[in-house]
Specification:
By secondary structure, the protein is of the alpha/beta class. It contains 20 helices and 12 strands. Helix 18 crosses helix 19.
Length: 475
């Protein structure tokens, strides 16, 4: 056996151990696809078909892999992965997805004796605490796709990360439906702050977790310590703030908010609804949520969905054709989370079924996830639907009229044609909608984008029309 072949022998030895310890079907599914690449000292590198594949085997067989490579190589053994695409092309270097998890430096937190009201003449002790920021390095700005749906939130977040607590965006309140990227933006701000200001103490917590911690502090008679701990935070990120229900926990949070804000600390909140729509919240707390900047995140448009899929596929180490990307972006319209889930399922089906990813496979997978098929959308369908919604005639829509309602209807029709029929060129859309040129269509799409970001009523019109156009049919 040559030195060059040693990695093969070592991995074959590992496979024998693994095969004797797991179900044969699981072994054939997950381990027969792995190929040894190199052995450098105690570092063994193996090739896997996708990042999804790596995450699964690390989650399901982490202990078995660790013990196996130590037995085959030694106590210092390390296992590394080279991600190759599912389709047989050159390997890819994965960007973003930073490996270093943010950490906080230890800080001193005052502690009191367990009594409800400590005497003002008793000085508290101090405890050195290492606070886990609880930030996921995957949720960095490098992995965030910016579009019209989230541009304001991303730009505000980047400004905050350069000067936490010193911008007008304090607090920053991000709100919108599920899967639109609220948590990603909030954590990306925290991660960027930790990279720029290592001494800043950052903490991410959910509204429900804060409430639970408060209740535990009440039971343990440690309310003063609880408040003292949170007052030591420099950047507090509270996800799903709408879950912070209860007058007692809200009162504690109110005091913490005031202390942090008055001392120039940064506050970031996310919610599934706007501050004005929050139920069972004290008015004094709601008024503070509105002090800084409130940003609504909306559903991603076609271009943003397409770019998000392209970026995520690259991170997964998977090469997807433009046809597949275009199909997925056209089919999954709800939110980023559903797009990511569909892509993960698609990679899993291709990996486990030893198939290339094509439109046919994408159709099968999305059919199982979305659970419905859409009627074929045509330009004629879009034009007639918009006319019906605004109660105008087709002739008015295609005329040169500059009446505001007709102009807006025409622009929305152009926007929907571009969004729902990706294969349609700007020139074709313009030709069908009154003989306009491609520049006019592009201007119309940009105008609709901008109005959707700033005008709730206009955005409702667009969403209503899209709901009428894309009608689900029974399978």
């Amino acid at each position: 056996m040559t030195v060059q072949d040693r990695h093969i022998a070592v991995w074959n030895n590992c496979l024998q151990i693994i095969e004797n310890n797991i179900d044969p079907q699981q072994y054939n599914t997950w381990f027969k696809l792995i190929r040894p690449v190199s052995l450098d000292g105690a570092r063994l590198t193996v090739e896997v078909p996708s990042d999804f594949f790596r995450e699964y085997i690390e989650g399901a067989y982490k202990d078995l892999l660790r013990l196996t490579i130590r037995r085959a190589i030694g106590a210092d053994a390390q296992l590394f992965y080279l991600v190759r695409p599912v389709q047989h092309r050159e390997g890819m270097v994965l960007p973003a997805a930073k490996s270093a998890t943010p950490t906080n430096n230890p800080v001193s937190v005052p502690t009191y004796q367990p009594s409800g009201s400590p005497s003002p003449f008793v000085f508290p002790g101090t405890t050195r605490v290492k606070i886990n920021p609880r930030l996921n390095p995957v949720y960095c700005f490098g992995n965030l796709v910016e579009g019209e749906c989230n541009k304001l939130g991303v730009n505000a977040g980047e400004s905050i990360s350069h000067a936490p607590g010193k911008t007008p965006f304090n607090p920053l309140f991000l709100f919108g439906g599920p899967g639109l990227g609220k948590t990603h933006i909030a954590q990306a701000i925290g991660i960027d702050i930790k990279e720029r200001f290592q001494d800043q103490v950052v903490l991410y917590v959910t509204g429900n977790e804060f409430k639970t911690q408060y209740m535990d502090a009440v039971k343990g008679n440690r309310i003063v310590d609880f408040v003292a701990f949170y007052q030591r935070i420099d950047v507090l990120i509270v996800d799903d703030i709408q879950d912070l229900i209860g007058p007692a926990s809200q009162n504690a949070f109110f005091n913490i908010f005031n202390h942090l804000h008055q001392n120039g600390k940064q506050l970031i909140f996310t919610s599934d609804r706007a501050p004005v729509d929050l139920q069972n919240f004290e008015e004094r707390l709601l008024s503070r949520f509105k002090w800084g900047l409130s940003v609504e995140l909306s559903r991603p448009d076609y271009d943003t969905r397409l770019e998000m899929l392209r970026s995520r596929a690259q991170r997964e180490g998977v090469n997807l054709s433009e046809d597949v990307l275009s199909f997925l972006a056209s089919r999954i319209k709800t939110n980023f989370r559903e797009l990511e889930g569909t892509l993960t399922s698609l990679v899993a089906y291709a990996t486990l079924g030893h198939r290339n990813i094509d439109v046919e496979l994408a159709q099968n997978v999305t059919g199982q996830i979305v659970g419905e098929e859409e009627t074929e959308v045509s330009m004629e369908t879009i034009i007639s639907t918009v006319c019906e919604y605004f109660n105008i005639t087709r002739e008015q829509m295609l005329s040169k009229s500059r009446v505001r309602q007709i102009v807006q209807a025409r622009q929305i029709a152009m926007y929907e044609c571009r969004s729902l029929i990706p294969s349609c060129s700007l020139s074709t859309i313009g030709s069908e909608l009154g003989g306009k040129d491609h520049a006019t269509v592009l201007h119309a799409c940009t105008t609709v984008h901008d109005l959707m970001s700033t005008d709730k009523l206009f955005r409702q019109w667009v969403e209503d029309i899209e709901g009428m156009i894309v009608v689900p049919v029974e399978k």
